[in-house]
């Protein structure tokens, strides 16, 4: 069976799409800051801020990962333009998440921070994930991509998968009973990973033939 | 130890009530402070709404008031805002999120309610909680509450010592521990709301801990009966232990010979023990216990050994290795 794909909409190539994407991705941040300012994060606003930023880091990371499968499924090649933008905003959220933890939650209290980053597995996994995101962000300018060469760059950027897996484990480990929303993140990530399997294997997973090109 | 015996009504007028201060700040922020006020606003919106001053206990006027004989224990620190005390709760029967119990616990139906006391006692009995309220003199006690998740509050409880109830059933010499059990009821605690732990929720104390003067059976807070999300109509309060020991909506108390297996220890023995004494030196594997965030404050504060009640309770643990028996 061949699914008929909708044609790529023209506006996807429009100049306003990247800035609009940035604006859209910054809405959760604006909402969080607004809530922090008006007391809406009462009664434990710092915890709510750390968690809200962590949640959005992971959601945007999953969105970044969804771009390539979405392109494969729809055939809309210009979606790829947005991948780098969303990826960079993801890193910005990660930076804010870590800053909120270090600066607001722990108020730069070095003994606690040291104990946390040396002893707590969930923090260590978060740090590894963060370090990967930092490397990917640092190697995303076009000039760097050119210097690295496409193949090496692509191989390096496959690290986004371990980053996402570590992010989900980091989240699941801080939940005290069961999975909480970490379960939803895990399911979405698993789905995205399956969709990213090379085509022959993907066909195997679904027990049928692979689709047309993609 | 900063536990005083004095009446809250004797406080000077200059002391401000936190809720009023909080609302005033909120109004100020809503009024749209300019960008210059942004950083000050952030600090204020992110915490710091508790007045530095100590407040008298002001009834919120939401639930039935309770008469007390007086305030018999009082920690000399600012009370946590009533709104925070009643919207930031752990009560897994109503959900794992802190805001879930306030939203879902309206189904609890705390009246009428019976509490059975059984096991190794000379006179097992089932108490009607309404009768208990009528026959047991009630005291106000302002205690710190320290959660194992490294946050804390100061709450004006109303209740009576657990020892008073134990005296009425006459424990036998063979009784060494007290086991507590919460209600579990599919209609009043719909399964769809529950977080995935085992029910009924079970807690336990050694008999000498249960008989300690600080150990309270609470029936109210802030001058009124307990809100459902706070464990209505009757709950335990053990101020020198992590909050999960202070079991809510109790239906059964049993005197037993063997140490009960409490819910959290059963679920994750490497993280939660039987004693669960507040101890800044023994970390939870997933977070440090050295400091805590007092709800309403911006900066964390140092956690006190036995939550600041060491003078009163340290003797109970003279012969116990607190690192092993966390
Ligand atoms: C240096 C790196 C990191 C540190 C120190 C860190 C620290 C934390 C802390 C302290 C919490 C809150 C725990 C609590 O409130 O009990 C948290 C939650 C969380 N973090 Fe991180 N994190 C880091 C990196 C990351 C990264 C890279 C991601 C995403 C890929 C992430 C996603 C999350 C999520 C989803 C939550 C849970 C939010 C919720 O409960 O709703 N974190 N993190």
Automatic annotation (TrEMBL), chain A:
Cofactor(s) in the UniProt record: FMN; heme b
Listed GO biological process terms: protein repair
UniProt keyword list: Cell membrane, Electron transport, Flavoprotein, FMN, Heme, Iron, Membrane, Metal-binding, Transmembrane, Transmembrane helix, Transport
Origin: domain of life: Bacteria
Membrane topology annotation: Multi-pass membrane protein
Cofactor note: Binds 1 FMN per subunit.
Domain Ferric oxidoreductase intervals: 54-168
Principal location class: membrane
One GO MF term attached to the UniProt entry: electron transfer activity
Localisation: Cell membrane; Membrane
GO cellular component, one term: plasma membrane
Transmembrane segments: 12-36, 85-102, 122-144
Membership in a protein family: Belongs to the MsrQ family.
Biological function: Part of the MsrPQ system that repairs oxidized periplasmic proteins containing methionine sulfoxide residues (Met-O), using respiratory chain electrons. Thus protects these proteins from oxidative-stress damage caused by reactive species of oxygen and chlorine generated by the host defense mechanisms. MsrPQ is essential for the maintenance of envelope integrity under bleach stress, rescuing a wide series of structurally unrelated periplasmic proteins from methionine oxidation.
Oligomeric form and interacting partners: Heterodimer of a catalytic subunit (MsrP) and a heme-binding subunit (MsrQ).
Name this polypeptide is given: Protein-methionine-sulfoxide reductase heme-binding subunit MsrQ
Originating gene: msrQ
Automatic annotation (TrEMBL), chain B:
Reaction equation(s) it catalyzes: L-methionyl-[protein] + a quinone + H2O = L-methionyl-(S)-S-oxide-[protein] + a quinol; L-methionyl-[protein] + a quinone + H2O = L-methionyl-(R)-S-oxide-[protein] + a quinol
Keyword Oxidoreductase belongs to the record: yes
Annotated positions binding Mo-molybdopterin: 89, 92-93, 147, 182, 235, 246-248
Occurrences of domain Oxidoreductase molybdopterin-binding (ranges): 108-264
InterPro entries for this protein: MsrP (IPR022867), OxRdtase_Mopterin-bd_dom (IPR000572), OxRdtase_Mopterin-bd_sf (IPR036374), TAT_signal (IPR006311)
Pfam family, one: Oxidored_molyb
UniProt subunit comment: Heterodimer of a catalytic subunit (MsrP) and a heme-binding subunit (MsrQ).
HAMAP family referenced in this protein's UniProt entry, alphabetically: MsrP
Family of this protein: Belongs to the MsrP family.
Role according to the record: Part of the MsrPQ system that repairs oxidized periplasmic proteins containing methionine sulfoxide residues (Met-O), using respiratory chain electrons. Thus protects these proteins from oxidative-stress damage caused by reactive species of oxygen and chlorine generated by the host defense mechanisms. MsrPQ is essential for the maintenance of envelope integrity under bleach stress, rescuing a wide series of structurally unrelated periplasmic proteins from methionine oxidation.
Protein name: Protein-methionine-sulfoxide reductase catalytic subunit MsrP
Source species: Roseospirillum parvum
Annotated gene: msrP
